[in-house]
Amino acid sequence: MFDFKAFAEDYGIAVSSEHHHSTHGWVQVEYCPNCHSHSYRLGYNPKSHTFNCWKCGVITFWFALQELSGLSSSDLAKALKEYKTGDIDIDAVRHSKNVASIVYPNNLKNLKKSHKRYLNERNFNAEEIEFLYDIKSTGHDCEKQWQHRIVIPVKQKGKVVTLQGRAVGDKSPKYYNLPENKSVVDLKNTLYGFDYVSGNRVIVVEGVFDMWRLGFGTVATYGVQYTSAQIKMLLRFDRVYVLYDLDDSDAIERAKKLVGTINAHGKYGKVLQFDFDGDPAEFNQDQVNYVRRYLYEKKKKTDRKSKDQKSKITL
User: Fold this and answer.
1) 258 φ, ψ to 5°?
2) What is the pLDDT of residues 7-46, one digit of tens each?
3) Is the separation of the CB atoms in 171 and 148 below 8 Å?
4) Whether 29 contacts 5, CB under 8 Å
């Protein structure tokens, strides 16, 4: 969790929870760094760590905090550590043999420069991803299968229940999952990002990087082979939108099958397809904003826009 009110007070950012623009549970910010209005149109949602302006729409978490505080990206990353609670206590659990607690690889460290560079080259903000999702790094001084990976904790109800490791470069396999006998919950019995969904709608994607790109309100099934446990979790939502890779016909067929299962259980499911193709992890910000409308707009309005969509949003 991030204590935005304390951060705002320390950095002289004018905020209010009682302004007439305020949504219940949100914090309104006087100044919007995107449209430069001073009318408390910018709101911060503590549950999803998102900023949204009534005039100009969604503003990325990192951009908003940098502009409001006047800090550089590296200084912001250092400062935010004082306002964050619930980070991973690596030293307390690293050598645990009890599957009631997660077993981490040895010598887990904060994100390495090479891993930050990799994320930045893929148009992610490495400091933002590290802060929001508690990702870590390994080097050569750990178990062989974990070497030189970005380590991604998977949470349920705030507790880390398993891990996924992502290789950078040509290392094979690209992904390494913590074995079931060392996990509290097996990876495929979780949905990555589930803890960060606060509403009754959800967007389902394939992988962790897809979820990072689209942000809170999105969950990943770790590929297109979903499980019955994952379906049960998705049935907790009223509306389920599935967005697997748009240029992969097999993935689209799996998405249709998942939606059919959701609909058969009496819930609303829809496969999202657009005029732009590709991997959601590679979407630009305009495309991300367009997709995220499904988390907020009325179903009929959003579905009509999807049918009438023009090709002006491109990769």
Assistant:
1) -65, -45
2) 999 999 999 887 666 677 789 999 999 888 888 989 998 8
3) yes
4) no
Specify the amino acid at residue 224.
Answer: V
- pTM exceeds cut of 0.85: no
- Residue 161 near residue 185, CB atoms below 8 Å: yes
Per-residue pLDDT tens for 151-168?
A: 999 998 889 999 999 998
Average pLDDT over residues 170-181: 87
Residues 222 and 191 sit within 8 Å (Cβ to Cβ): no
* % of the chain surpassing 70 pLDDT: 87
Q: Which two tokens stand for residue 109?
A: 């460290």
Enumerate the H helices of the chain as residue ranges.
4-10, 61-69, 73-80, 90-93, 113-121, 126-133, 208-214, 228-234, 249-264, 285-292, 299-308
Look at phi and psi of residue 193 and say left if phi exceeds 0, alpha if psi is from -120 to 50, else beta. Answer: left
Angstrom distance (rounded) from CA 40 to CA 43: 7
CATH 3.90.980.10 for the 90-185 domain, yes or no: yes
Q: Using the structure block, give the residue that is written with the tokens 């400091």.
A: 127
Instruction: Tell me the fold of 194-308.
Output: Dna Topoisomerase Vi A Subunit; Chain: A, domain 2 (3.40.1360)
d(CA 203, CA 215): 10
* Whole-number pLDDT of residue 283: 95
Q: What is the domain partition of the chain in residue ranges? A: 4-83, 90-185, 194-308
Phi, psi of 142 (to 5 degrees): -150, -175
Could you read off the pLDDT of 75-97 as tens digits, one per residue? Answer: 888 888 888 765 544 443 343 34
Helices 126-133, 113-121: axis angle to 10 degrees equals 110
8 A C-beta contact, residue 70 and residue 62: no
Per-residue three-class SS string for 126-191: HHHHHHHHCCEECCCCCCHHHCCEEEEEEEECCEEEEEEEEECCCCCCCEEECCHHHCCCCHHHCC
